[in-house]
Amino acid sequence: MFKLVRYARPTLRCRAQCMHGGPSKDNIEIGPKANLDPELEKQIESDKQRLQWRTPYSERPDSFYSAFKLFASENRNSELVEKMQQPINLAPAAILEWWQKRRANIEAHMQKFIPERHATLGDDIATAHFIVHRGGSVRFRGDTQWIKMDDDDQYDLPRHHVPGMVLEEVRCDGMQLFYEGMENIQKLLRLKHLSFENVSLFDDWYLDRISGNTLPSLEKLNLRGTAITHRGLNCLYRLPSLKLLLVDDPEKDIHWKLTVAMLEEWNPSLRVASSDQ
């Protein structure tokens, strides 16, 4: 059988003591006091350092990984715990996949926009260095020859700002471009032709970033061999001077046909085709 126990409501005095820090045993200050002995404070800090369970590889001066501190994140604890919980796969295919992802992450970081480079060289020459250094080719106004790397990975481009050098055509065909690198192709006020043919990573997000740059004079855009969909074409309204858009198959399905018709209705000067003919 259950025994009934009468609940006694605390008195006003008891509640006042609890609210205002009276002689209650539960209201005990936790932690060290404000004024501690300097020796004791040093001991506490020493214990904190000793009890730290892990030091990041990028902060270890005697470690090989310290050379990659530029690519190391400041907070990698959650990533390390996740990796530790997964079984170790030493199969050749798994090791190759890890190495490819590692190289891709480093290359994506190296393609980030560097404001100092554009401020020193100007947008046209800085973009030319970025494209040619990674296997692309460019052509300046007044030149008939394209600038690209030779067999010895050498190319001829100014190392300082040269007034009057206007970049008119850029070919990124077959390059390994990441989204981080799209910001380098910006503010090319007199660029007329831009090609991303066979850039496998180029998708709708890339196209949205490119169309958001300042390219008011762009007349021809080549997107053949990329991963764009009909949804990505909707952002091309930002390119008012566009006259020719090259895609793999503008009549692939009903969605492509409707999107192409909408673009051509918005810009009567625009022609969407699969070839220059």
Summarize the structure.
With 277 residues, the protein is an alpha/beta fold.
Topology of helices and strands:
Blueprint: H1 12-19, H2 38-51, H3 77-84, H4 92-110, H5 115-121, H6 123-133, E1 137-140, E2 167-171, E3 193-195, H7 204-211, E4 220-222, E5 244-246, H8 254-266, E6 271-273
Parallel strand pairs: 2-3, 3-4, 4-5, 5-6
Antiparallel strand pairs: 1-2
If you had to describe this structure to a student in words, what would you say it looks like?
This protein has helices spanning 12-19, 38-51, 77-84, 92-110, 115-121, 123-133, 204-211, 254-266, and strands spanning 137-140, 167-171, 193-195, 220-222, 244-246, 271-273. With 277 residues, it is an alpha/beta fold. The longest helix is centred in the middle third of the chain and has 19 residues, at 92-110.
